[in-house]
Design brief:
This protein is mainly alpha-helical and 296 residues long. It has 14 helices and no strands. It is globular and about 55 Å long. It starts with 6 loop residues before the first helix and ends with a helix.
Amino acid sequence: MPIRIEVLEIFELLEYGFMQRAFAAGLMVAVLCPTIGIFIVLRRLSMIGEMFSHVSLAGVALGVLSGVYPLATAVGLSLFAAAGLEVLRRTYRMFGDLAIACMVSFGISLAVVLISLAQAFNLAIFFYLFGSVIAITGQDLQLILILGILVLALVYALQKELFIIAFDEEGARAAGVRVDLVNALFVVATALTITLSMRVVGILLVSSLITVPVAAALQLSRSFRATACYAYLFAMISVLLGLFIAFHADLAPGGSIVLTSLGIFAIAALSRKFLGIGGERDEGTRIIGTAEGKGL
């Protein structure tokens, strides 16, 4: 069916309880993902999103198999994986990507085993894989909002330390920053963000919503603050427009949200190339340096 985006029609969607829950959860996810994503991108840890996505799938499969609330088991297993990742990162300090690769293997292999034991690839797992407009329950929304607020509070409390570590981890150690503790807390925040976001975006695409809005923001911004503002704006547009399209076209919201986000990235990249919008090419170093210079 043709998709007509009208303001009145958007408000009419809010008459449905399931769309109210979808938009409320989506807005929280649109704030959470860039908050975590900007530090993940600047620290070149984009694969950590894939790691927790696979672990979350195993958690969902465990919940479906055991009859326990799947989002709760996904959160629990993700926190366990976060602890395991930190142990491996400290064991292989020179090979941080090796720790992530090991945890990716753990997550996907455990998911395959648990899904096989359940002897079914049912609709519940499908909704967690690709997201769903109608599947978000009041219990899901409550958990997303409560843990989402805790994640935002944690990142806000650690923002200065996270800036310094992103710029120079060894220098942060020399300056007295408790790098191992901050890294551990940040990994926990990342695990929670990805696990909560999968209800809206889906396990297979949640890492894209963490990185793509930030990548689009880096095309246009000249400072850390500008990058954060653009990333929040792009993530919110992607989630709201993606949910709207998913409802009217009867699609899984994960695909429409991420494709919208990729469209925004393409527009930002083309604007930078042909209109000269944006700053230097080395965004990561420049933006962190700007933030450090302003005492952020």
